[in-house]
Write a structure and sequence with these properties.
Elements: H1 3-20, E1 29-30, E2 33-37, H2 38-57, H3 81-98, E3 103-104, E4 111-112, H4 113-135, H5 143-157, H6 161-165, E5 178-183, E6 189-193, E7 200-203, E8 210-214, H7 216-223, E9 232-234, H8 236-246
Parallel strand pairs: 5-8
Antiparallel strand pairs: 1-2, 3-4, 5-6, 6-7, 8-9
Amino acid sequence: MDFERHCAEIVNQTELLAEGIAGADLTATVPSCPEWTLGGLLRHLGGAHAWIEEVVRTRAQEPVPDPSRDVNGDDSGEPPVEWLLDGATRLAASIRDAGPDTKVWTPLAPMPVSFFARRMAHETLVHRADAMLAAGREFVAGPEVVTDAIDEWMELDALPQHFEFNPAKRDLLGPGRTLSFRATDADVAWHVDLTGDAIVNGRGLSDAAVTVEAPLTELLLIIYRRQEPVGVTGDADLLTFWSKHVTFG
């Protein structure tokens, strides 16, 4: 997926979320984020859209206050879909206006705005999955979007900066520690190699200590710890250990 598609998906995924939560109870607990209500989840996502919109619009080179961490609020009434849609639309417009190559502050390092276009497209996608779980409704996503979301996740998790921010992540590295994820309904797979001095993630099938085989969308939810693993063969303890060290988003 390219820069323009990522911008479009920020709005598209928000529109799908808005449709999916129509009439939902904002006090419902989010099973995948049990400390949040559905209303809190929506405030988090809308706050994240507003935060990154300010970073991009102002071409920030230093951290900007993040409102997405405060999820408290009024959970009465109808879901705030107009607020969510307006925020997503403004975020996508500011990202397009900045262009893909403009460098801005990110939590990892200064990066091109294209980083935030992709990150916020998939942040919205995964939080849409959370919202559907809370509302008791089906989560459906297109294979191209899901594949790109897993690609991004694998790329981000392999960044060496993680060892600086979280030294405990080095505990993942060790001999024989390899994982494989294969979609059963698409011709795509990913591998994780933890046997060296760095995390090496990428596309492709490979022999591994533990393998997860599941439909593509389920792989996304498993990798993001939104669903318990299914289709596991091999060292399930390694999968659990890896999952505890790599969660984000």
